[in-house]
Amino acid sequence: MAIQLDMIGIVVHNMEAALRFYRLLGMEIPAGVEAEDHVECITASGYRVAWDTVTLIKSLDPNWVEPVGHGMSLAFKCSRPAEVDQRYQELVEAGYPGRKAPWDAFWGQRYAQIQDPDGNLVDLFAPLS
Q1: The pTM is what?
Q2: Please, which residues have CB within 8 angstroms of residue 125's CB and are 6 or more apart in sequence?
Q3: Distance CA 63, CA 26 (A)
Q4: Contact predicate 78/124, CB 8 Å
């Protein structure tokens, strides 16, 4: 049997803050789970995204060390270039740090970068044509 990517896990310091951010990106996360140590949802693409608190991760692996830097980022596809600008502006106005304001990338996409509450880079993009 072939193996397949099924879930992306994100370690968070504050579950409530993390879920608020990802809900603003349109993720359908169950209500009333903000106090949980593990939360997950299934995306429209069929894969799972899970959030685990630092407390849970350290209880599973006492030697776990919080990573430094950005080894990986998430990218959210928007329906059109104007939506990249709109989502970016909404997130910045909600208090999330913008890393790179929307621009037309040479590879043919409208692109922007923002940070989630844990410092993870989140990309927003849409095809230019």
Answers
A1: 0.90
A2: 75, 76, 77, 78, 84, 105, 109, 110, 111, 112
A3: 34
A4: yes
pLDDT digit string, tens, across residues 59-106: 999 999 988 887 778 999 999 999 999 999 999 999 999 999 999 999
| Topology classification of domain 74-127 | 2,3-Dihydroxybiphenyl 1,2-Dioxygenase; domain 1 (3.10.180)
Q: What Å distances lie between residue 71 and 34, 68, 119, 121, 127, CA to CA?
A: 26, 8, 12, 9, 25
Q: Which residues of 44-83 are buried (b: 16+ CB within 10 A; e: fewer)?
A: eeeeebebbbbebbeeeeeeeeeeeeeeeeeebebeebeb
Contact between 101 and 114 under an 8 Å Cβ cutoff? The reply is no
